[in-house]
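Q: What does the assembled structure look like for these inputs?
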Amino acid sequence: MSPSPSLGELQRWMRWVLTHPLGVSEATAGRTLAGLPGRFDAPGATVLSAVANDSAEGRTALDRLAVYGSGYFHRLHGTLELEFPRLAEALGADAFGTLVATHLLRFPSTHPSLADLGESLAETLRTHPSGAKAPWLVDLARIERATAEVWLSDAVTAARWTLSAEDDWEQVRLALAPAARQLGLTWDVCEWRPEQGPPPRREGWLLIWRVEASTMVEFLDPRPGAVLETLADGMSLGSVCALAGSLGMSADEVTQAFGHWTVRGWLVPRPSEMLADRRSS
Amino acid sequence: MSGDVQIGVGLRPPHYAGVLEDPPALDVFEVISENFLGLRSGGGGRPLETLERVRALRPVRLHGVSMNLGSVDPLSETYLARLRALADRIDAACVSDHVCWTGEGGENLHDLLPLPFTEEALDHLTAHVHHAQQRLGRRLLLENPSSYVAYLHSTMPEWEFLGELARRTGARLLLDVNNVFVTARNHGFPPHWFIDGLPSAAVEQFHLSGHDDSGPLRIDTHDREVAPEVWELFRYAVRRFGPRPTIVEWDDRLPPFSTLLEQARRARAVLEEAADVPLALAG
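A:
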């Protein structure tokens, strides 16, 4: 018992008790769960005796701490529910709540903004019983996360750069625009609704990008999708053209695909490229 | 009312479109800073594009919830740099956050957690506020949070703690009148003690919002109209400190924007009532 804990002792204990998956009462009673991450090991000093108590119903020290403890879970759960509405609907309230609890154990928020909280939810789902039972939900979660990310990234605008005769075009390297995401998918879940039953398999690529307030999606077939991914990964244009040829794409198909991607604004010069200095207005 | 004593509301995403289409008769908007910092990887995205359009209409105040000023963790330099860039970009009318801690050990709880009112906490907070003000290049406004927990080892009342913090750092206080009421009810002291105990020169702005009074503890929910007792306390605070810029906040179960405007009009009436009989500022 420490009636006058240091600020550090107080905050370590409070963080532990307020985020404990069993809740404030169980945690302070010494209950624990097997397999919890190390940050849920009970801190040495207990601060409970330093929290003002009140014998009135609903106003004890534990009741007071529980306001923060339940608020922690509900706030983060609400954030993820807003970001993953279709996943939440498909799983149902109980399974989605379990998924969120598992996610917070694996990936607690470490940033001032809640915008990054859902970054790895698809990864959590992949190894979660719900994801094993309905693997297409992992693709759905990735789509919803990518949609959130393009909303929070600088908008795509139509291509404002050109290749000129002086460019050593074979060496040019490009990247996806900040508000564009490319996802390799296994399932046709882009417009899938839970009441339709399991979706069909459809291997390919999905481009999600934002233009002003509109979020757009476009499905790409496997070959051009693979070429675009390689291009966006930073391979030089010359090498990408060679790759496209090895995948059986004709020169016309490559030219057409590249034109389509640039008109859409999906590709931008990498910052280090000289090309970036010659963007037309 | 215009000039120094501005009235505004906390602007939230469902109301953006309506406000941009038909700008309301308000002097200023307040927004949650973190909503415009985008992803960790950078960029403010659509929210920032929208904020710039709002800024073209009215001054904007940045109100943060994650500076983590009271934590034993070091302040996030990345957060401060991005907040400064945002404040500079929109020429923010002010930057505010809370006298609390929001995380420890690198983990963020996204809540306004109470500090003990001790010399240790005051020293710690003073150093962090100095650091944040230096990084932000401006004076901070610091808000009193609502609290449900109090610590037996506190050595001074919250108002004394806040007043001393303002004195040591030069920061000013954003007095949330609803939070005063909620905290006072939850910890069993008369709310006017809080108002009476603050140095009036340090109080620069007011906040108003609604709270849930249905349980044994009052909960600061920001999901309903300002309670009658809080309006009364607001009148008391305005008499004590004089008219100050005032923001009405509403975060959950958002009503039509007209409801916020009505609350803002009511706040304006209280300030104007006080302005007719100005009080000398003590401090």
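Chain B touches chain A through 51 residues (CB under 8 Å).
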